[in-house]
Amino acid sequence: MTAAATANGATPLPGRIDTLTPDQEVALKKTWVRILKAFEQKGEPWTPPAKVAEPAKEKKSRWGFGGGKKESENKDLFMGATKNPDWLALPVEQALPLIPGEELAGTFWNMVAGDNADAVVLRFLRARKWDLDAAFNMLMNCLRWRIVSRVDDITALGEHGVKNELNNLKPGMGDSFIENLHSNKSVLGGPDKDGRPISYINVRFHKKEDQDHEVIKVMTLYFMESSRMIVHQPVESSCIVFNMEGFTLANMDFDFVKFLLHCFEAYYPETLGSCLIHKAPWVFSTVWNMITPLLDPVVASKIHFTKNLDELTNYVDKAILPSFIVGKEDIKKNTELPPLPPAGSLASRQSPEFKQYEAVCRNYLAETAEFAKSDIPAHDPKRKEQALAVRHSTIKIEPIIRGRTYFHEIGLADVENDRLILKFFGHIEPKDISDCV
Fold first, then answer.
1. Where do the record's region annotations for Disordered lie (predicted)?
2. For 272-288, what is each residue's pLDDT tens digit?
3. Where are the alpha helices (DSSP H) in 209-269?
């Protein structure tokens, strides 16, 4: 599948695989040369220190606007627990040589998640307006953050495995994660009019003091990585709808807002297709004035306010919208938990199937080294065949690299006979997206 026609029939966007200018082709290849070099580096060995008791945290103000310790000083228990903290704390130019290249490559392919790797690299180039140094540093900063934050572990463990890991670190923390995950704070849906997945955030169900901030961070990453499950060219981004009905200042969590914005700006560039703030009450204007200075201009350009259903249907067909948005029924905070799917395992990365997948990825990188020296364009059929081989291999080992999720169970997408079938919860006819690179 090419970008000859996007999901909504629009003209293909510039700076994508099928629409690159000659200068952009050169930029892509030069960036690949630097990436390949980073993947080959040895790095430096590091042994985790013995665990020490966590000091008591100073309580923050209600909204997280100040008071107490700064966010950067709060110690997470899961994120950052298994890797050298210098990998993330040092400036990227100093930290990068410390990280083994195989770890950079491993998290890179988990980030690609079966997408076309050229498309992923291009997202960073577009985000930095084709400044090669800035784009490369942004990509490496993203990879080191993924490693230290254990993003790949979150995906591989699945919700049940994450629950177990968090409970082992702090009794009740994993239970809190599951309760938040199934509370209706966030509900996946879609597609929007551009064929993108939608995450509905029901803001009224959130109060920052009800759970550890790390629980919300892990849940956010879990949702973001789960939405990557259905990425397929030319659909590269997602839509967020903040349902502000019932919002009061008690629901404001400034730390969460900062974390989410930073994720989209620094770690998931060009993946926010649109952000719709629906039915915001007048009291939200005070909060919005505090948020606006934090917004990256690119992110800000994708934020739209919708006052009513008619305005929202400019972005999402009414038939696709959930009943709690169209007013057919109210949505309540869910307190009944469904049976959890089986827990994923980190040990499965040692399986023969995973080793075969790694071999396919290494072959792609070897072919990329030749591609970077050639005049072959990124849209060349042979180049796309190379990407397709990785996609097929990724789909085949989906049960290994992605723990079973509730989203599989309720019909977002699933792997059937080594084919990735997009279902969108019955909102569309099942669609085989296995060959969409």
1. 46-74
2. 999 999 999 999 999 99
3. 213-227, 254-262
Q: pTM of the predicted model, to two decimals?
A: 0.92
| φ/ψ (deg, to 5) at 242 | -85, 105
Burial class (CB in 10 A: 0-12, 13-18, 19+), 433: buried
State the pLDDT at residue 74.
61
DSSP string, 93-140: HHHGGGS-HHHHHHHHHHHHTTS-HHHHHHHHHHHTTT-HHHHHHHHH
SS3 354: helix
What are phi and psi for residue 271, nearest 5 degrees? -105, -10
329-374 residue pLDDT tens:
778 888 888 899 999 998 878 889 999 999 999 999 999 999 999 9
Rounded distance between C-alpha atoms, residue 262 and residue 256, angstroms: 10
Ranking 50-59, 109-118, 150-159, 279-288 by mean pLDDT, the lowest is 50-59
Strand pairing category for 186-189 and 198-202: antiparallel
pLDDT at residue number 52: 53
Separation CA 33–CA 380 (nearest Å): 19
Domains of the chain with bracketed CATH: 157-326 (3.40.525.10)
CA 40 to chain centre: 26
